[in-house]
Structures
1.
Amino acid sequence: MTCERRHVLITGTSSGIGAATMTAGLAEGWHVFAGTRGAPGETESGDGVRTDVHLDVTSESDIATAMGEIADHVGERGLDGLANIAGIGIPGPLEIMPMAELRQSFEVDFFGQVALTQQTIPLLRPARGRIVFIGSLVDRLTLPFFGALATSKSAVASLADTWRQELAPWGIHVALVEPGFISTGADEATKARIDRLIADMTPAQSALYGAMFTTLTERGFKAQTSGSSPDGVAEVILDALTSKRPRDHYLTGSKAHIGALVAKLPQPWQDRMKRKAFDQPAPGSL
């Protein structure tokens, strides 16, 4: 018997925004294909159905297997939505960041999203489904020491805008959700990663960047842990997937709208404001 529920593939469902979006989709009665690195399985709640699919977005074989499972279930009816939420944030000074880490940032945040979306579009076309990408406030307002995230998310923003135009003839809407500071539940893990990075700096690297990086990340961590709940972002993602008049870009979460306004100021003004906010050295002072 054909499943009459709406179907959505959500990546990164093991925690944070992905987990919150999965929960919100289930509450709305969706059949959620939950992309996870864990073992596949299926559960049914009172409202929706969750099918876990093993999915590492950087793995071509994982993507192919997941697409086969989803296609077998949805059939000719197609897939109603794709929420590209899986991501990674790698902080650090760009001068000393290993190229392998920068490439990893793009593999997960950009190339993995492209590869998965390419394979999902044929399933979305019959249902005139929708696609949601997750950008970030830093794709508008770049912060020092978060260049890997800012550049990969800027690429995602351009990707969403390009695909929105290319897929419009088939009625496939593409939206970009740009969160501000969100307390995802992974804050301690992020802090531990930052602490390890500082501890692993050579004496020369520490002399150049140790104090600046420590000060900025300490203030950033406070802003992150006091940020908005992922539930609010999940609500926005569900709106982008279901609204009769979905928007192209959504700003959401703590300081997102304020940050977007700051991003419209002349660049020298922005730089001065960020130096003051994060207690960074003045130009030419070192």
2.
Amino acid sequence: MQGFETIINSIIKLGIAMLVGFVCIKTGYITKEQNNGLSKVIVRVTLPILIITSLTSLEFDTQKLKNSIYVLLVSIVVVAFLFAVGTVMSKISKMDKSRAIMHRCMTCFGNVVFMAFPLIQALYGAEGLLYAAIYELANDTCLWTLGVYQMKSIEEKSFMGSIKNLVNPGTIAFVVAFVMMAFGLKFSGIFGEVMTGIGSATTYLSMFFIGGTLALVDFKHIYKRVWLFVLTAVKMVIIPIILMFVLKLFNLGEMVTAVIVLQAAMPASTILVILGMEYDGDVLYCAEGVFITHLLGLLTLPFVYYLMSVI
């Protein structure tokens, strides 16, 4: 049960880092603007470096290439399935258009970077991070095309405009890492140590940012959001359990299966709050959803991992 101890320890560490960020924003020690600035540092600097340094530390072979292709294909199907489930739930609950869009997106797009990368790296190392990055590629492709297209008003909708968002620091770093892996290149010496150190900072900076984001949520009416608790149960427990059984039928391997299941089980993406603000979505509902899923995720993620170890 060493893996279970690892995820418990990781969740506790991540939870403490989130709490620090939460307290700093709640007390005004760090401002909302400063916290948003931190997200830019993560997305534009530390995360791309983490992706490159981690993936280039791998010895790439034919099996990893096959696994990567499997992960990409399965991830696209999983993201599409999550979106369909979110659509059904929003129709059953008879939400208005703005809230329904945010509900679909929260069901579909998880925190597959800030929350997942540190956790999966702790559990499965650089190879696990490789597959997590590929899931992120599928997730981001759908987020910046289908997700943004959904949120924009009818006049503003432009599918090609959304596609331009695919060129971002994360995808560029992913491509750079693959090119370096293909040619056997990697950072070395003092420069390599510095780059590795900067990349490793992503873990706690990400959790600090999430905690700071959650501090902005108004708790007064959050217990009334029944469908957000339903979303949490469906997205973060029921669907991952279904995936466990389905993916085992394809014999993708324990690590590949585990990474896909854990990525699908992640809390709602924090970036949806930012996109909701930009496109006049139901920001309050989205922020409450991000808070609930992250809070309960500290319990559901170890539970899902435990089930994978016994099923």
